[in-house]
Amino acid sequence: MKFYVCIKQVPDIDAPIQIKNGNLIQDTDRTVLNAYDASAVEEALVLTEKHGGEVEVVLIGPNQAKETIRKALAMGAHKATHIETREESYDSSVYASILASFFEDKDYDVISCGKQSQDTDAGLTGSMLAEHLDLPYSTNAVALSAQNGQLRVKRQGDAGQELIALPLPCLVSCSNDMNEPRIPSLKGIMQSKRKPMETIALDALEIDESALEAKTAVTGYREKPKREAGQKFEGEPEETARQVARLLDEEANVV
């Protein structure tokens, strides 16, 4: 099986952040492989180790993102492509357009990615890319298996888990509940330095200029409002139950 896994370099969510005058201030030197993408890499490795094949990771980002690519290679990915850009604030539609141009002439069985990135939590790039490429796809996968020329996907739905069979080629976005990504070994880290990594300039891809214009914009950041204190009820159970039901109906409008 030929897997392409789309990965992203994101800020370390454990690094301290500040919000000042509506702007987000974070430690730009502390960046990591997106956790959801790491699970997608792990699952691709598990399937190719079982059925044979190859895993290639693809990343859109600046030059310093090569360190994140090496992390995926150290995990076991066979090779990588770095689409080098100067811009770091693309939205989902731009990422999907760039990736669609890259995959236009590629052969693959599965394209996978994290269901969202931990910096924006937008969760839109995978489905947009599937639309660009006219691929069957599934989101929020928690388990994958390959059977009879199909990718079997167990996904977490709103009301429980669902089982979906996707014909190949296809696209799937992966939850970080899928697995526990392996920690690269010293041998894997050393081997990653010798694995092929192709760098492609964004200008080398045939992309319409309008596709590189973001469709959304962040207007500002603010602190999460503090949670209001809960209301405590005392008295007989029947009376407190009536109070709760009345408040749910009259104030919360949920009954």
Structure write-up:
This protein has helices at residues 35-51, 66-75, 92-103, 125-133, 186-192, 237-250; strands at 2-7, 9-11, 17-20, 23-26, 31-33, 54-61, 79-84, 110-114, 137-147, 150-157, 160-167, 170-174, 197-201. The protein is of the alpha/beta class and 255 residues long. It has a single domain (2-212), classed as HUPs (Rossmann fold), CATH 3.40.50. The strands form 3 sheets. Strands 11-10-9-12-8-1-6-7-13 form a 9-stranded mixed sheet, with helices on both faces. A hairpin with a 2-residue loop joins strand 3 (17-20) and strand 4 (23-26). Helix 2 packs across helix 5 and helix 3 (92-103) packs parallel to helix 4 (125-133). The longest helix has 17 residues, at 35-51. The chain starts with a strand and ends in a 5-residue tail after the last helix.
N-to-C terminal Cα separation, in Å? 51 Å
Number of domains: 1
Our Rg estimate from Cα atoms comes to 22 Å
Average pLDDT confidence is: 91
The CATH superfamily title: HUPs
In DSSP terms, counting alpha (H) and pi (I) runs of 4 or more, how many helices?
6
What fold name stands as the CATH topology? Rossmann fold
The CATH C-level class name = Alpha Beta
Please write the string of helix (H) and strand (E) elements. Answer: EEEEEHEHEHEHEEEEHEH
Categorize the overall geometry.
globular
User: In percent, how much strand structure appears in the residues?
Assistant: 25-35%
Low-confidence stretches: none
Task: Order the strands across the largest sheet as they lie in space.
Answer: 11-10-9-12-8-1-6-7-13
Main beta sheet: 9 strands, mixed
* Strand elements, count: 13
- Helix content percent band: 25-40%
**Secondary-structure content class:** alpha/beta
CATH architecture: 3-Layer(aba) Sandwich
Biased composition (Basic and acidic residues): 221-240
GO molecular function: electron transfer activity
Keywords: Electron transport, Transport
Organism: Fodinibius sediminis
